[in-house]
Design a protein that fits this description.
Length: 212
């Protein structure tokens, strides 16, 4: 499968080969769902905590006697029915994370890449960097590929300067070829993959599939 490589100005330069094993797979909605929800679950802190009636600070004494007052029977001021009392079945700290098999996660990522190719949301761009780290330069580059919309740039390596340039653009995110995130990749309306990252993706996922 060949794909056009665009320059920084949005002009066609040449073509690059996309591996059918990575970018030409049938869409598997179930794998995508499990991969995205696993990532979202792993982000949850699970630190919410409430006190039950045994943990609330207060006296254990009855506020008034059991009989003779005409009022309802009352245990202590820590009762859940009173303001300031304990919480019934409230949240406690817990671990929300869960994982899926590595092979399933890799298959989900390849499925999403294939989906982006099929919907023409993926474009290959020549390798470039923002040496100055200025947001203005990166914004000019993005304008050549459309207006402001949720965009993902897949890098061939860790480039701190280009990440610095994009830090002030709220609808832009960066992913490394070997550390893709299913959520960002799937919900990206536009996926720009550097030419070097394409070659790395072809090799990386083929190697991972062969278990090497």
């Amino acid at each position: 499968m060949n794909r056009t490589v665009y320059s920084r100005d949005g002009k066609e330069l040449r073509t690059v080969e996309l591996s059918e094993e990575v970018f030409g797979l049938p869409i598997n909605d179930d794998l995508i769902w499990y991969a995205i929800n696993s990532e979202l679950a792993n982000k949850r802190l699970g630190t919410a905590c409430t006190k039950d009636r045994g943990e609330v600070h207060g006296s254990n004494a009855k506020p008034y006697k059991q009989k003779g007052t005409g009022r309802a029977r009352r245990g202590d001021k820590k009762s859940p029915v009173l303001v300031g009392g304990g919480v019934v079945f409230g949240p406690k700290p817990r671990d929300f994370s869960w994982s899926i098999p590595k092979k399933a996660k890799r298959a989900a990522l390849k499925t999403i890449l294939s989906l982006k190719v099929q919907t023409d949301a993926l474009k290959v761009v020549e390798d470039f960097s923002i040496e100055s780290g200025k947001t203005r330069e990166l914004a000019l580059f993005l304008n050549n590929f459309g207006g402001p919309e949720r965009t993902v740039i897949v890098l061939k390596d860790n480039d701190p300067q280009i990440k610095r340039a994009g830090a002030n653009i709220p609808w832009l995110s960066f992913l490394s070829f070997n550390r893709l995130r299913a959520h960002d990749l799937f919900y990206g309306r536009r996926v720009l993959v550097l030419e070097g990252a394409v070659k790395n993706l072809n090799e990386f996922y083929k190697t991972a599939e062969n278990g090497k």
